[in-house]
């Protein structure tokens, strides 16, 4: 079993201090063409769903990705699992660019990078039994489990995710939402992958069931040593499960760092606005918290603003923001401080927000 590093073994802003990343994403771009015409189609533009994303994923860690709807989170997930082909950029799995692979080479890599989908109601084939759904990866990769052992392996997987092994002959409609998501997780675990990309795996579930699924994923990570890329809207869930967090806005990662650094010491205005919107159960703490209300609508990814993409909604925006795109790097003001604010942030005027208590 792979030994999972603790958070103290990881570097504050970028991952593991002395470990090689299992996955490296470099300048990843995905543009969807916009066309006009029926018989003679002409491209008139492109939706810039993902535009220059960079990050590393280390063995045994969980990288959380958060952001508004339409920011490109799910597109990144599909690119990592080769469900979509990138327009440009690299996805390096153990140093090999999987965007250039095909045939048997791609099939071998896919065995180690699996996905848990968002909707447990549509991601399972209603005409297949649970045993067939979970056992299908064994048909694609027969070297993993001989035919005589597949039924036992499927029952073992059902037991691992907390379901009765006797449910093997049931159909998806006979299960609740939380149970269906457990079936999806069992299918993702079948080939013992090194990486699981979880695209909002709990957003369609009730709160109590969300906690069960998240706790299950943490337990399985400790047991099998997998790396997770965990995509979600709920910032509290992402903080609970993640070692590092990346914040996306309009196709780009605008801030990334250790979970404590992002949640307690955010330096990008968009991250600060997101965190200010998180509900606080304590009435006294809520009364003394300053809420950041963003004005304006999210720009279209087909026509993003020049320079900094967040500048049209940012209260710090200046002329420089319109002409110069900020790089995702540690702000100069925090370099060498060795504090939690020393993590990459794509803002010309990155700083920790000064909390002003309300009367």
From TrEMBL:
InterPro entries: AAA+_ATPase, ABC_transp_ATP-bind, ABC_transporter-like_ATP-bd, ABC_transporter-like_CS, Oligopep_ABC_C, P-loop_NTPase. Keywords: ATP-binding, Nucleotide-binding, Transport. PROSITE patterns: ABC_TRANSPORTER_1, ABC_TRANSPORTER_2. The keyword Transport applies. One of its GO terms (molecular function) is ATP binding. The keyword Transport applies. Residues 23-275 form the ABC transporter domain. Belongs to the ABC transporter superfamily. This is Dipeptide ABC transporter ATP-binding protein.
């Amino acid at each position: 079993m792979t030994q999972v590093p603790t958070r103290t073994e990881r570097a504050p802003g970028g991952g593991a201090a002395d470990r090689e990343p299992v996955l490296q994403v470099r300048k990843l771009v995905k543009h969807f063409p916009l066309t006009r015409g029926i018989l003679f189609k002409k491209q008139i533009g492109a939706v810039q769903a993902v535009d220059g994303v960079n990050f590393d994923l280390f063995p045994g860690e969980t990288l959380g990705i958060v952001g508004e709807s339409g920011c490109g989170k799910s597109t990144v997930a599909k690119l990592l699992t080769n469900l979509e082909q990138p327009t440009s950029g690299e996805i390096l799995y153990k140093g090999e660019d999987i965007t250039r692979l095909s045939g048997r080479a791609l099939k071998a890599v896919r065995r180690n990078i699996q996905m848990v989908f968002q909707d447990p109601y549509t991601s399972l084939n209603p005409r297949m039994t649970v045993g067939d759904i979970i056992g299908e990866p064994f048909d694609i990769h027969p070297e993993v489990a001989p035919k005589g052992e597949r039924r036992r392996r499927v029952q073992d997987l059902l037991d691992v995710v907390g379901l009765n092994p006797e449910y093997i002959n049931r159909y998806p409609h006979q299960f609740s939402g939380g149970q269906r998501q457990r079936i999806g997780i069992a299918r993702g675990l079948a080939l013992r992958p090194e990486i699981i990309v979880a695209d909002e795996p709990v957003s369609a579930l009730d709160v109590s069931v969300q906690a069960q699924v998240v706790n299950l994923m943490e337990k399985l990570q400790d047991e099998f040593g997998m790396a997770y890329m965990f995509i979600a809207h709920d910032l509290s869930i992402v903080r609970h499960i993640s070692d590092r967090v990346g914040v996306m806005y309009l196709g780009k990662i605008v801030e990334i760092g250790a979970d404590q650094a992002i949640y307690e010491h955010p330096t990008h205005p968009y991250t600060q606005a997101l965190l200010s919107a998180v509900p606080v159960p304590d009435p006294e703490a809520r009364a003394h918290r300053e809420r950041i209300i963003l004005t304006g609508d999210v720009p279209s990814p087909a026509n993003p603003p020049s320079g900094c993409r967040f500048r049209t909604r940012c209260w710090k925006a200046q002329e420089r923001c319109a002409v110069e795109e900020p790089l995702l790097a540690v702000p100069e003001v925090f370099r060498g401080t060795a504090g939690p604010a020393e993590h990459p942030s794509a803002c010309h005027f990155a700083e920790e927000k000064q909390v002003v208590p309300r009367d």
